[in-house]
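Subject: two folds for Thursday's group meeting

Dear M.,

Sorry for the delay on this. The cluster queue was jammed most of the week, so I only got both jobs back this morning. I'm pasting them in the order they finished. Each block is the input sequence followed by the predicted structure tokens. Could you check whether the formatting survives your parser before we put anything on slides? The first protein is the one we discussed after the seminar.
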Amino acid sequence: MTVSPAASRWTSRTVVHVVLVLASLYAVLPLVWLVTSATKSVGDFSTTGAFELGQFNLGTNIQALFTQENGIFLNWIGNSLLYAGLGAVLGSFICAACGYAIAKLDFPGRRALFAVTLAGVLVPTTALALPLYLLASQLHVVGTFWAVFIPLLTNPFGVYLARVYAEAAVPGEVLEAARTDGAGELRTFFTIGLPMMRPGLVTIFLFQFVGIWNNFFLPLVMLTDPKLFPMSLGLYQWSTRVTQFPQYNPLVITGSLLAVLPLVVAFVLLHRQWRSGLAAGSVK
């Protein structure tokens, strides 16, 4: 029995639509649950369903969140913004410089360096936590801001992405013209290479920001002072108390909702340049 091309086309289109709807629900339903749960009181968690609204207590939950333990959640917000914001800016610049150098400069060991970078992409960050802790212990910086901040500045995937984008977006002829006019390599990079790589930098920045914002294991290993915790680690510590102290349940959920908002804002503000940068890198 043969199937007509029209029937096959409609069947495949239906399957694609079903898969896309299921994938969308998989991505959206946890956020919907987070929003509805953040409006509940402690008692509503045992008397209402997962997506059912109880009494609207969002304002009360937010107030309790910012006053709990002398407002330590504000410290966690500031720490997360400092780790992720400054770390993403500096990390993106470092990745751009490394990727540009590998793509456009001729120096001994360039191919070997790129191969090591690709190998670094394959290594999970959790596998590096113990070596980083031992190194930080030798430098006597365990339990400080620098123990978490400095390792976040390196990102092999960002270097790889910058290298691919520099190959595609920065013409070699323009660089040769700048060198002929007497510009040094640093000036060429800052005045020509870096502006041409701007869409790719936005992509790297977003990857860096999201990765640092969601980073959990490295602060868990390095930090002991709650005042230095990022939101991810602070909310985790609160979540371990929920069984004994149910009043922490709405605090953890409301804090998790607030923790998502900066990521949403970053993607909304930068999504156009992010898409163009990612597309240019993928074409190459």
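Second protein, same layout:
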Amino acid sequence: MKPQSTHGKPGASGIRAGLAGTSSLKSIDWPALLATAPFFMFAIVMMVMPTAALLATAFVDKQGGFTLANFAEIITPEVADAFMASAKISAVTAVLGTVLGLVLALTVGRRMTSQKVKAAVMSFCGVASHFSGIPLAFAFIATLGRLGLVTVFLRKAFGIDIYAAGFELASFSGLTLTYLFFQVPIAFTIIMPAVDRLSTQTREAAEMLGATATQYWRFVGLPILWPTILGALALLFANAFGGVATAYALTGTAVNVIPILLYAQIRGDVLHNEQLGAVLALLMVFVMTVTISLYLMLRVRSERWMK
């Protein structure tokens, strides 16, 4: 008997593929997809499309032709100095912010017994970590400016003139001090959950084996917290490197950092150079992408330690 011809009829594999396709469509959570659609649209409009526009602008000259000459301007003294200043202030505030945030987290999490005080500290850090930009700059000018509240009080009450002693708010040190106002709370909010999840059984086991407090933190506590600490460093560096509103409102152009230089190139005045602005923006995107990716990887590792 000859086998029945299957010409013109769907085979078993085709039927299975069609059923699988139908099943995959049914498995999609359409309500959740529709609910998150505005977020994805926002990300495309505000992140993907501007990045694509930057790429298109960075590789063309003013006549519209393809060129790589725009990237040569990165090594000019002005851009190089701005990059070094941004990297320096980001590194300094990231290190100081992480160290102070770690100390604060250890104090609140391991030493503080009052739940009300602990809640007050955590609430203040939650608010201060989002307090930046022009309001923060105004607050520091009103407090530590030449006619600021603290400046005038120190001069009248104790005869101390901080500006005569060399302090200047519109300078690298002043900008560093201002950045620490939100860098420390951010580090605290990142490190505090890891400190809370440190096992008391581990500490007790180390003490039973004869370990001192210093040995416990050196060989047990800090190695467990290390990924979280490094993640905080990476995130604080990215946060300071990309900040423009606080720096511009506080110092104007007195401190030459990448965000202010970028703003000067795209705002349309005599320094307007759209191609250089696109290159600087791509440089910032690259730095932010690397540091935030590093933070996310370290965060996953720290969460694995705490399980």
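Two things I noticed about the second structure. The two ends are 65 Å apart (CA to CA). Residues 77-111 form the longest helix (35 residues).

Cheers,
T.
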